[in-house]
Write a structure and sequence with these properties.
Layout (H helix, E strand, L loop, with lengths): L1 E2 L2 E2 L5 E2 L3 E2 L10 H10 L1 H6 L13 H14 L1 H14 L6 H25 L7 E2 L5 H8 L21 H30 L2 H5 L5 H12 L3 H8 L3 H16 L1 H14 L5 H4 L7 H18 L22 H4 L18 H28 L7 H21 L6 E2 L1 H10 L4 H16 L1 H8 L3 H21 L9 H23 L9 H11 L2 H15 L4 H4 L1 H4 L9 H8 L5 H5 L17 H23 L10
Antiparallel strand pairs: 1-4, 2-3, 5-6
Helix pairs in contact: 3-19, 4-5, 4-21, 5-17, 5-19, 5-20, 6-16, 7-16, 7-17, 9-21, 9-22, 9-24, 10-21, 11-14, 11-21, 14-21, 16-18, 16-23, 22-24
Keywords: Membrane, Transmembrane, Transmembrane helix
InterPro entries: NCS2
Organism: Platysternon megacephalum
Length: 626
Amino acid sequence: MTHSAVKDVNGLENPSFMVEDGDQYSALSELDAEGLKEKKKDQGKNCSTLVYSVTDIPPWYLCILLGIQHYLTALGGLVAIPLILSKELCLQHDPLTQGHLISTIFFVSGICTLLQVLFGVRLPILQGGTFAFLTPTLAMLSLPNWRCPAWTQNASQVNATSPEFIEVWQSRMRELQGAIMVASCFQIFVGFSGLIGFLMRFIGPLTIAPTITLVALPLFNSAGDEAGSHWGVSSISFVGGLLVYCFQDLFNLTQLLINSLFHQLYFLSVLSLESLSPVLLGLAITWLICFALTVSNAFPSDSAVYGYLARTDSKGDVLSQAPWFRFPYPGQWGVPTISLAGIFGIIAGVISSMVESVGDYYACARLSGAPPPPKHAINRGIGVEGIGCLLAGAWGTGNGTTSYSENVGALGITRVGSRIVIVAGGCVLLVIGIFGKVGAVFASIPTPLIGGLLLVMFGIITAVGVSNLQYVDMNSSRNLFIFGFSIYAGLAIPNWVNKNSQVLETGILQLDQVIRVLLTTGMFVGGFLAFMLDNTIPGSQEERGLLAWKETCQEECDETRVLEVYGLPFGIGTKFCTSSWVQYLPTCPKRLSGSKRKEEPKSFKQENSFKINSEREPEIDIDTRI
């Protein structure tokens, strides 16, 4: 090995270049190579494995197929939310109206998905109902004046077409609509004002972990009651999905053989079994088993006997009663009403949903081959989600909208990160929401199957919340105390308030309702305590997990690529965001400065010429030794 002083690009001596005798090549310095690897680390991991990146346009048939796949992936959450709410809305014995609610949430989710992908954060991310709204909603509907009358719990006394019954459930829905619409205005303001960036300075993993965990933990009663209607059937629903997941390797091997023989059928390589959700497949398998056992009369036919709710005909002939076409429209349940108690409770759910969505944006960008989202894209994304919640309240879904983490995971499985595919998925949701029969099919799912689905979904949500602690030093007694105390208080305080609400009465009805809704929402109690303790008890940035949490936000990216991905569509960015004063708006893309525009092509040419020369050098017979 001969050590020689080789001059670098600037003419300076660089002893890090070492050329071996007899070799006809020159090596880059270790420092330059390491810097190049560090700069393109994420793009090398993700973009190299992507078939279509965020700005690519796949063939039309592939867009439709993958759009349907994303719809199927989100199906569990979209169906579960209306079915959980139906009990508190006094609709447990009215499956036809449950089908209308499911169709409405499909339709609104399609609208919100199109708005988010086209004008919001502009990433391939699906919008749908949020479990973060469930806890405050159930707390609001548990107030004495909104509890369901006893006669609505008896199927023999319920006449779904009577004006009295219709007014009972629609009055509760209108109250919920008003609370969601007012709370969504808060989210719109936080997003479009750029306030979300300020709030994220004080919200770290120790705040997010108990907040998301307490979204699902208080709902164990609902999941247990539904699954307990027949534990055998509910266990089959998630065990079937587990078996499908375990045997997916065998399916992938078969898929590989098919693709090797028919490589033209590209869609087979992206429609993998895993991406279609093992839970959903387990649900379909169990549904078929229940149908077979119902036809053979293995389940009891008496509604008072345990196991009757596992029959596929236990909810009546709802499929034949449902119309083929039903167009959801704003105000279909009447004019929304407003109460302070509901507004403050839903705002707690809005804050939790916003924090979760910001994390989904960064994960989606990483998996779709896009640069980390800039501040203006995050602001638009949160603002558009607020608009989505406003539309959901106006249409009467009984819930808001948020970004779906399940579909973010599907991007990594299919290796297709194109946002056009999600646009196709939004169109699929719109079309499905118009077909009334589709909502009726999902409303007829036997109760134990719903219970098994909820057990899996709530368990996953709890695990996702706890997984945020990976950024935190859990050997610190400070962090152990904050997380443990927040979780336990988020369960204990709502339980005590439900049993002793009279102790907190102030004599002012509206104030009493606000206090009760907030203190019976475990997500608010635990999240608020974690927020206060994490920002008051001394701790280093590394100990709190803030350094690792914000690591992805500090990556330097090509500004041209950022504008290409996150710029406004249809020429809006070039026509309306060119003025100097518009650049100060929190939602407007920042244009490249003149110096950067001039320097960028020059540096790009230098880099390309250097690569070309280094690639051509070994090909020609020239001795490069000094």
